[in-house]
Structures are given as structure tokens and as C-alpha cells.
Amino acid sequence: xxxxxxxxxxxxxxxxxxxxxxxxxxxxxxxxxxxxxxxxxxxxxxxxxxxxxxxxxxxxxxxxxxxxxxxxxxxxxxxxxxxxxxxxxxxxxxxxxxxxxxxxxxxxxxxxxxxxxxxxxxxxxxxxxxxxxxxxxxxxxxxxxxxxxxxxxxxxxxxxxxxxxxxxxxxxxxxxxxxxxxxxxxxxxxxxxxxxxxxxxxxxxxxxxxxxxxxxxxxxx
Length: 221
Description:
Order of helices and strands: HEEEEEEEEEEHEEEH
Number of domains: 1
Number of strands: 13
Number of helices: 3
Mean pLDDT: 84
Strand content: 35-45%
Radius of gyration: 24 Å
Shape: globular
Structural class: mainly beta
CATH architecture: Sandwich
Helix content: 10-25%
Distance between the termini: 9 Å
């Protein structure tokens, strides 16, 4: 009997440390794309993308384009993180976007990478040379079908939650796409029927009811 009471006391002490996973699906605060033009004469040579743009367009572009000035496109997405408790361990974070189309004069598809950028709700420049295999969070190769593309962004979201950041910013860009190639795809924007979403699973504390020593003794008499 004594051992049983000691066991129950131990469970009462350790119950508050029990954890379980909670999840939240976060819609985008804003979405937009940017064209990085490259060429001679009337076409400026841009070495940076502008992330944090705001567009009501249903379809946003990622990849290279060879119409007119040789150019390249990237799509940026921003999400609020207030639904994820600060300093809480993140089990997983997945960014999902819907592929909605691709170039008519296709030269294949770009390997699409997702990169983090400091999101404030205002435009911010991101150097193209900074988007490398060392800075990419995840890479997918799109199929010809219009389906969801999912990216693992767990490490980036954990860093943001640890820092108490209010927003997460993600830039979708072709990893191996080349300026002038006709290999762009389009993805659904914030107003599309299947908008982008960020699904975060994090550790949450399991609520426990308080117990008294007298009630424990009563249960074992």
C-alpha cells in the first residue's frame, strides 16, 4: 500500500511536465511576386528580388521568362506567428502552395526552393546571389499537374518563434532556373481558391487537475 501511495504522489508531481502536440494552420497575411529583369539597353540588370510585395493576383510566378527582356520571377509570402506560443518547441512547420500553371513554351520546370527573409509587411530586397544551396530551406521539383507543393520550413519557424518574431517571410525562387529560360510556373496567391498555408505543429502542455494529499489517502484507504 505504501508503494502505491508513493507512486501516485510521484505521478502528481510529474504530471505537470506532460506534453502533447498542438497544430495551427496559418493563412497568408500577404502574397506577391517580383520580376527581376536582366538585359541590355532598355532592360535594367537587376541583381536582387523585392520580397514582401503585395498583390491581389490569383496567380503568382516563379522561374525564368524569355518574353521581351530576359527575366526571372520570385514569389514572396508572409504569415503571422502570433498563434504559435513564444519559446515553444516546434515539431514541424510545412509551407504548402498550389501550383496553378506553367509556361506555354516550357523548357521544363525549375527546381523551386524556399528561402527565409526578414518579414515586416514592407518590401525588402533579397540578393539573387544570396539564394544558394546553403541558404535554401527546402527544394521541390514540380510535376505537370496542378497540385500542392509542400516545403519543410521547420528550422526557420523555430528560429523565428525563439526570437519572438511576429511574422515569417518565405521567398519561392528557382534554384537552378536561369535568366532567359522559359521555365516558370505559377502558384496560387492569397486570394486563390486554394491559398498558401503554413501548418505549424508545436509542443503544448497537457492541462492537469490539481490533487490534494488528503484525496490521495482517501482513494487508498
